[in-house]
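Quick entry between incubations.
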Amino acid sequence: PRLYHICMAPISVSTCHIPWDDLFALMLLIPSLPCSPANFLEEEGNRGLVAAVFGILFSSLCVLVLDTDPLPLITHSSQSTRGKYWKILALLYYPAFYYPLMACATVRHKASYLMGCLLSWCHCVVHIWQKVDCPQSPKIYRYYSTLSYIPIILCLVLLSLWYPALLIKSFTGQKETLDKEVTQIYGVTWIPLKLILSITTAMIAVYQVALLLLVAVIPTIQIIRAGMTKDIVVLLVQFGLVPSESPAVPGDMEKELRTVKYYLWSLEVCYICSLVLCCLLTCTMLLRTLVMHRSNLKALYQGAVLDVFYKAHILRPSRQAIVCWMSFASFQTAFACLGLLIQQVIFFICSVGFAGGFCCLEWCLMLGAFLLASSLPPRPFWLTLVVAVIVQNLAAHYQFLEQHPLRKELTNRRALYIATYLLFPINVLVGVLAGLWRMLISGLYNSIHFCQLDISLLNRGVETFDPGYHTYCHYLKIEVSQSHPVMKAFCLLLLQLARPEGPSGLRASNVEEGIQLMQHKQAPLSRARFKQSRARWWLAYTLLHNPSLTACRKTALCDPTANGTQLSTPEP
Amino acid sequence: PRLYHICMAPISVSTCHIPWDDLFALMLLIPSLPCSPANFLEEEGNRGLVAAVFGILFSSLCVLVLDTDPLPLITHSSQSTRGKYWKILALLYYPAFYYPLMACATVRHKASYLMGCLLSWCHCVVHIWQKVDCPQSPKIYRYYSTLSYIPIILCLVLLSLWYPALLIKSFTGQKETLDKEVTQIYGVTWIPLKLILSITTAMIAVYQVALLLLVAVIPTIQIIRAGMTKDIVVLLVQFGLVPSESPAVPGDMEKELRTVKYYLWSLEVCYICSLVLCCLLTCTMLLRTLVMHRSNLKALYQGAVLDVFYKAHILRPSRQAIVCWMSFASFQTAFACLGLLIQQVIFFICSVGFAGGFCCLEWCLMLGAFLLASSLPPRPFWLTLVVAVIVQNLAAHYQFLEQHPLRKELTNRRALYIATYLLFPINVLVGVLAGLWRMLISGLYNSIHFCQLDISLLNRGVETFDPGYHTYCHYLKIEVSQSHPVMKAFCLLLLQLARPEGPSGLRASNVEEGIQLMQHKQAPLSRARFKQSRARWWLAYTLLHNPSLTACRKTALCDPTANGTQLSTPEP
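Done. Structure below.
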C-alpha cells in the first residue's frame, strides 16, 4: 500500500495542476483547489460517479479511524511522537487523494475522460491486487480488513466502468441534451444530488458499522463456545448461573455443558437477528427520508411552507444555511452510524429477553414464578384495571353519549361526574401504566428514527433545537432557493436561445410542459369596477396557499391591494 | 382509625340516601349514587372545595398503596386469604367514604351546609387527634405516616373553613350572582375546574413521591454514615474504592474514615439537591401546563384549530373523548409521579458525577488522568473539529454569501463545493458529536416534560400515539365543545330572563362585554353587484382564519358562495 500511495499521490496532485514538492505541501492543496474545474455538486454532474467517490472517501475514513498507520506514506506513524497529528492530516489527505477521480469528469473533455479511465483502473487494480494477495490481517478479525474494503472496491469498479462509457460517448458525439435535464427536473424519480450522496454514504456507514459489530462479537462468542470445558461449567453451576439437578461434580456435567453451549449459541443467534433487524430498519428509514424529502421539496416549490415547517420561514441563503448545507451529508452519515449502534443495543437486549422465554425455559420459569409470586401485583388487580377501562368505554358509548343523526351530544352529566369521581383512584393506576407505555414508546420511536434528519426528536415548538432537524431545515432552504423548477426552466430557455443547433421543437415542448407544472391561470380582468374586489380575493387566495408570504408582504410590496394580482397564485 | 371509619362510614352512606346494611353493600353505592345531587364537576361549583376533596382522595390512595391494612374496617386483612380483594375494594371504598364532603356543597341548602360543616369538622378533628396522639409508626420511617397525612389534614382544614363560610353566606343571603360567573368565564384568571383538580392532585403527587423518595433513602444513608467503622474502611481501601496513602492497617485509618464519611455526606447532599431541583422543575412544568392550556382554549374558542392541533379536528364529543375526559386528572397525577421518579434518577446520577469533580478531587483526578490518557482522543483532535467548524462559518459568511441590501445570494459555488468535499471526513466526526448531543437533549427534554400532558413526546406526524397527549387532545375537545363562552353567555342571558329579581342593568352590561369579545363586525352589503365578489372574499378570509372549516364546508352548507357571509368572520 505504501508504494501505491507514493505512486498515486503525485498523480493526484498533478491532476489538480499544482507543483509537487513535499508531503507537507499537501496542505497547500486546499487554497489552490478552487482554481481547478469543480462544479461537481451541481445537478447536471454525473450523479453516480460523484456518489461513488464520496463512498470511497467515507470508507477510507472508516479504515483510517481504526488504523494504526493513518498516513500510508509514513510507516509506523502511530509510534512516533507526532502520531496524532498524522491522523488529523490524514483527514485532509484522503479527500485530496481521491479528488482527481471526480475532477476528471467535470472538465467534459476527451483527454480528462481518458485520464479518469487510467486513474480509476489504476486505483481499482491496485486495491484488488492488494486484497487478493494478502486477504488476512491481524486487526480485530482476520478478514475484517478485506471486508471493510469491499465498498471501496465496488465504488472503484463503478468508476472504472463509468469513465470508459463517458469516453465512448464523447467519441460517438452523444451529448447530454437539455431534454434529459428537463426530464431530470420534473421526472418522478427526481432527487437532489446532495441527498443521493448522503444516502449512499449512510448506506455504506450502515454496512461498515454492522460489519464492525459483527466481527467484533461473533468470533469471540464462537471461540468461547468452542473452548467451554466442564471445569468452567462447574463454576457457573456453583454461582447459580446455570440450573443443575445433579450435584456439582466435574465428571458428571455433560448435560450442563450442552446447556451452556446452547445458551451461547442462542445468544449468537439473537445478536445476529437483532443486527439484521437494525440494518433493515435503518435502511428503511433512510429510504423513507428520500420519499419525505421529495414531498417536502414539492410542497416548498408550491409555496406551502407550513406543510413542511411548523412556523413560516423565508427560504433564502444565510450563513447558517450554508454551513448546514455543507455538513448535511456528513451528519446524515454520522447519525446513521449512531442510530444503528443505539438500535443494536436496545434490540439485542429485547431479543435476548424475548428468546429467553422460548430457549431457556427452565431458567425463565424459575425466574418468572419468583417474579409473579413476589414483586408483581396479583392478577385480580390487573383484572380490575381492565374491567374499569372497559366499563368506562361502554358507559361512555351507551350512557353518556346521545347519538343524534347529525352530531353527538353529551348526556347524563351527573352520572358522568360521579363515575369520574369514583373511578379516580383506579384511573390513577391505569395512568401509571399509560405513563410506562409513554416512556417505552417514546424511547423506541426515537431510537428507530434516530438516523432520520427530516424528523425532529423534540416536540413541535422546540423542534429546531434538535441538531439533526436544524441541519435538515437549513439544508432544505438552500436546496429550494437554489433549484426552483421555474427558475431552472427559465435558465434552460435562455441556454436554448444561446445554442440553437439542437432539435429545438422537441425541447421547447418539454420545457413548456415543465413550466406548465408551475404555471398559474390568469383571470381576465374584464370590468374595471370589479378590480378591487377581485384583487382582494386574489390576495386572500394567494395568502391562503402561501402563508409564508404574509411575513414579508408589507416590506416587499408597497400597495398590497393593487399588487395582489401579480403574486403567483397556483391553482389547487 | 378503625373506630373512626366505623362511625363515619354509615354517616357517609346515609348522606347519599342509601340504606346501610352491610359492609359489602358498599358496592351498591355505585349504581345508586347518580340519584343524589351531584353536579360538582360543573363550572359553577365551589372549585376549591372540589379540589380539596380530590386531594384527600389521592392522598388516601397513596396511603392505601403502601398500607398493609387497606380497609380500616377489617383488621389484619393482608394476612387473610382475601387480602388482595380488600385492597381492590378499598379503591372504591375511599371515594364513596369522602363523597358526602363534596355532595353537601352541591345541594345548595342551609341544612346541607350544616351537614357539611359537621362532617368536615368531624373528619378533621379525628385525623388531627389521631396523628397528635400517635405520631410515629414503624412503616419505612417513623414520621412517614404523619408526614404523608399532612395533605389530607390541610385539605380537611380547608373544608372545615369553607363550609362554615358557605353556611354564613346562606344565612346573610349573599348569593353568587350571575355577574361573578360571567367574570369567571371571561376573567384573565379563568381556568376550567377539571384542570385545577388535575394540577392540585399532581402537586400533591409531587409532595407524596418526593416524601417517599426522601424518607426511603436519607435515613438509611445517615445510619450507614453513623455506623461506619475502621474495619469497613479497611475493606473499602482493599477493594480500591477509597484512595489511601498508608498501608491498610485498621489502627491507622482516621483520615480514610473521614474521607468515607465525607463521601457519604456529599452523596446525601447530592440526593437532596437533585430532589429539590426535580420538585421545582415538575411544579414549573405543571404551572406551564396551566398557561399553555389557557392559550389553547382561547385559540380553539376563536376557531384557530391549527394553532393547537397539527391536523384539523372536529370539536365534538365522542366515546374516546368522554373516556379521556374522565381519566384526564388521574393521568396527569400518575404522569407527575412517574416524571418525578425519572427525573430524580437522571439528576441524581448527573449531580453525583458533577459533585465528584468538586468533592472527591483526589479520586477523580486519578480517574480523570487515566481517562484522558487512554480512551479520550488527544486534544489536537478536538482543536481540529473546533477549527473546522469556525472556518466553515467564517467562509460561509465572507466567501459564499453575497450580501445584497435586499436579499442574500449564494456565490463562489466552486469553492463551496470543494470545501464541502474536502471537509466531508471532518464533518462526519462533528456529526458524531452532534448525534450524541441529539441523544442527550432528546432524553433530557423528554424526562423534564414527562409530566406535561399537553406536549407530545413523539414527532409531529405521530404525536397522538403518545397516550398522554392523546388524552389531553380528547379532553380539550370536550372542554371546548361543552363550555364555549358564546354559548355560556347565551345561557346566562336566558337565565337572566327567567330570574328578573336582580339588578339587571349591571349584569346585561357585563354579559354584553363578554359577548363582544367573540363578536364579529358585519360589513355593509350596500350594492348588489358587489355581492358575489365580496361573498367570495369573505369566504376566503374566513377560511384563512378558520382552516378547520374547510373539512365540513361542503356537507354543512349547500351553496358555499351564497352562504359565505353568514359564517363567523372574526376581525384580525
